[in-house]
Amino acid sequence: MQVDSADFETITTPLPTDWVMRVVIHGSGLVFGATPMLARVGPQAVQGLMPTLAEGVVLGFLTAVPEDGDELRIGYANGEDLASTGITYSSPDA
Fold this sequence. Notes:
It contains no helices and eight strands. It is mainly β. The strands form two sheets. A four-stranded antiparallel β-sheet has the order 1-2-6-5, with no helix packed on it. Strand 7 and strand 8 (83-88) form a beta hairpin.
């Protein structure tokens, strides 16, 4: 699994959930199967991870805006630690 980039997008239209930010992950080898995919941005779990129609693009949501420097980590629910991507959140105001 290779993550090339991630887009952090503030949700401006109110949703019937606690989600305030969309995370769009771009990469290769992002496989959805019997073992669920997991991701975190800093200490916060990315919720609702799902593939999109575009190959190599995964969508998820956050319930709080991350802290500057919080890293995106990704992997599978197989007991192994989530892998570092080297991709960090940076506030648009920073």
